[in-house]
Amino acid sequence: MPLRGGDLGCVWFGGTQEGVPDIAVHFSRLAPGASRWSPAERLSDDPARSEQNPLLFPAPDGTLWLLWTAQIAGNQDTALVRRRVSTDDGRSWGPVETLFPEQPGFGTFIRNPIVVTGRGDWLLPIWRCTKPPVGAWTGDLDTSSVMLSSDGGATWAEHAVPDSTGLVHMSLVDLGGDRLVAFFRSRWADWVYASRSADGGRSWSAPEPTALPNNNSSIQATRLADGGIAIVFNDSSAADATGRRLSLYDDIGGDEVAPLTERSAFWGAPRAPMSIAISDDEGRTWPHRRNLEVGDGYCMTNNSKDRLNREFSYPSVCETADGVLHVSYTYWRQAIKYVRTSAAWVRGAAR
């Protein structure tokens, strides 16, 4: 994320293993011209919850927001959203606050950045993690919404995306005026889906599949200076899977998961390659695609301590004024990898 003054900021969650209480949020920065990122700084410390999915938001008033989720073990239906605010571009941080508290029966999750529209509205994509009638949370009933604030984050109103069951990690792209397009991860591990709004994010079309595959792993999209849209994703789906997990957290124990059905979330599709694609028609087609990293993407376990997981996942992408595309992603759940490239390379004009 570009910060004021020219630094890049990167946030991630780390610890023993996702869902374990020692998972916490970390922050690092890269100064202009520097060849090394600053030492990681831990910014959360809840001994009872797994703290995940951090994002940075440089607010229009000059403050820098850090948002993240906090859940009990592998139960995403217990997730709440927390916040810290910095007035000096991340060099110091205010106290931990709860932005969206835990709700009976469902948790609130975030992953992709806040978008500020031409109206001045703040749009924060969320998804609701609902506990099923039988068994632990697995993602089968998750639905997406946009939280909209017209008063600088003081109050928020929810605008649900219709027919979005199983579609999460909504990534917003402002197309200008009141038009937006959003892209979704699919719990069914089939395709990246897209939805559109013509009224500044207050109402949304029912999501439809794009030509990009999805493996029930995260995506992120951004608008380019030349008008295109770049998206980072895993170019794989359930069709590439050689096995299937019962749930995301089946190797840390906890509440029993209900047996799989035809409409259960698909876990275990390979999280590789890590790819980037560009659309020149507002996300309707994706003719330009490149792989940033290839591998087998093995993710039948989240165990990184013993080097059992080999996924590339949870990518982020932004473009700076010099035309550089900055991409970061999880490398084997052991480190964050940072890559610099360009839209020209993705389009094949430069190598």
From TrEMBL:
<dbReference type="InterPro" id="IPR036278">
    <property type="entry name" value="Sialidase_sf"/>
</dbReference>
<keyword id="KW-0378">Hydrolase</keyword>
<dbReference type="Pfam" id="PF13088">
    <property type="entry name" value="BNR_2"/>
</dbReference>
<feature type="domain" description="Sialidase">
    <location>
        <begin position="6"/>
        <end position="327"/>
    </location>
</feature>
<protein>
    <submittedName>
        <fullName>Glycosyl hydrolase</fullName>
    </submittedName>
</protein>
<dbReference type="InterPro" id="IPR011040">
    <property type="entry name" value="Sialidase"/>
</dbReference>
<dbReference type="GO" id="GO:0016787">
    <property type="term" value="F:hydrolase activity"/>
</dbReference>
